[in-house]
Design goal:
Elements lengths: L5 E6 L6 H14 L4 E5 L13 H13 L4 E3 L12 H11 L5 E6 H5 L15 E6 L9 H10 L6 H4 L5 E5 L7 H9 L10 H10 L9
Parallel strand pairs: 1-2, 1-4, 2-3, 4-5, 5-6
């Protein structure tokens, strides 16, 4: 007997903001996820090292999770000294949760770049992929991604409950045009980040002087 699926959202979270949280909230509600696990990266393999320390980013993720029912923090990637490969995390979670469908949450940009990920062909052996999409957008899929969708895409939500892994679900979300890069620039300019990230996270950033122009020099 399978237990309800859980969502898994990894990221640098430098800082965590509504562009991360809003699609995850919508996926949790639409798919009936028991919880969403937030996994901050220690060494992100596909981007530059974060500006804030692992401890600071973890503190912000904890505040965001506490502010959103159904969200929990998973620190496993921060405890590693190796790059935060998604496949390693999914292998661990599958071993710990053999009867729970795993839904790895990602954006469309990540799906389009999936062939560049470490051991990307194995991801669906351990989890479903739930991809946040802009309604009506028809991206130009790389050949490998188009083939993946042809084999694994489902439009039946119950497939994510009936099987532990192996499906791709494209989830229409309200578009949130916000990146951490843009948010950091706004904070460095001294602008008010209200409504762009949880209030407790904004308060933490102000108290610790994070992302200010002096902090980034």
């Amino acid at each position: 007997m399978l237990t309800p699926p859980i969502g898994i959202l990894g990221g640098t979270f430098d800082p965590i903001h509504i562009g991360h949280l809003r699609p995850a909230i919508e996926a949790r509600e639409a798919l009936g996820l028991a919880e969403v696990r937030l996994l901050p990266n220690h060494i992100p393999p596909h981007r530059a090292n974060p500006l804030c320390s692992s401890e600071q980013r973890l503190a912000m993720v904890r505040l965001a999770a506490a502010d959103n029912p159904g969200f929990v923090v998973d620190e496993r990637e921060l405890r590693r000294d190796t790059p935060s490969w998604t496949i390693d995390t999914l292998v661990e979670l599958r071993s710990e949760l053999p009867d729970t469908p795993l839904c790895f949450l990602m954006g469309m940009d990540s799906l389009l770049g999936l062939p560049g990920w470490h051991r990307w062909q194995e991801l669906l052996d351990y989890a479903h992929l739930v991809v946040s999409c802009r309604p009506g957008w028809q991206p130009d899929y790389p050949v490998q991604v188009a083939e993946l969708l042809a084999r694994h895409q489902t439009r039946d939500i119950q497939d994510l409950h009936r099987q532990r892994h192996g499906h791709v679900w494209l989830c229409d979300n309200l578009p949130v045009e916000l990146s951490a890069t843009r948010l950091r620039a706004l904070l460095a300019a001294g602008q008010d980040p209200k409504y762009l990230l949880p209030n407790p996270v904004a308060d933490y950033i102000r108290r610790h002087g994070l992302y200010s122009s002096s902090a980034t020099q």
